[in-house]
Design a protein that fits this description.
323 residues; TIM Barrel; two-stranded antiparallel ribbon; 37% helix; D-xylose reductase (NADPH) activity; AKR; NAD; EC 1.1.1.307; Aldo/ket_reductase_CS
Length: 323
Amino acid sequence: MPSAPSVKLNNGKEMPLVGFGLWKVDNATCADTVYNAIKTGYRLFDGACDYGNEQEVGQGIKKAIDEKLVKREELFIVSKLWNSFHDRERVKPICKKQLQDYGIDYFDLYVIHFPIALKYVDPSVKYPPSWTSEADKVEVSKTPLSETYAAMEELYNEGLIKAIGISNYNGALLLDLQRYAKTMPQCLQIEHHPYLVQKDLLAIAEELKLTVTAYSSFGPASFVELDMTSAKDTPLLFDQQDVQAIAKKHNKSAGQVLLRWATQRGVAVIPKSNNPDRLAQNLDVCSFDLEKSEIEKISSLDKGLRFNNPLNYGLAQITGIFA
């Protein structure tokens, strides 16, 4: 059974370098998908309120624990605070609801999903709330990130979460975070692939001792199924000649090369697959090393091309915040 090495966070907690991403995992098959991923050797599961499948993820975890495939303390469970719960008084209640949906007592890492505060939506009315309010439009809240982060620190101090994460923050927001954080976060999650290397942001994160987790490691492949024009018009990274040549040389798949490009540089990854063989392949991406010239060649594909941008979802009111 393949396994992934871990990286030590700035609070001493160990986090697997390769995990399983739960975005777009269908509710009908989610519990079995999680259970099978645990059987394959995955220990980190990256979820979120917005994915709408947290109860099913919890069912898969419970089945694996009940069958003694794994102990809770061997798992690293990640979830995220959605935009409409940024008000300080909303953070703890929604975190507790999410823990209840998972059927667990704490999150190993809890992440501010976007640095965007939206108007509160009562979970009894719409859950997950997505980007729109009860009036079915984007309505921004006036809650500053500093207040939201203070509430995250309360969760951390109370033991409801074992590490604090932030996601989709740019360099300026990271530098501002230093000014109000009493406890610096442990992890920064960003869109990161050879078309969007974000070299300067990675350098800032390293200076601040933040472990970086990459999502959408395969670039446009994650967004084609969303019928996103920019993704459909962009060549797949799997098909890039240099990526294919490097994969052939190492007798690995193009996907494994793309994941190794990240992990060899200390960036954690959270791919997903329903294919058992690919599940194992994705987990086994630290058993070979790329040459420095190969890493540089892959990095040279950088286009500064971001797919997870609100404008791509028709949310022009809040676009540009990640630039």
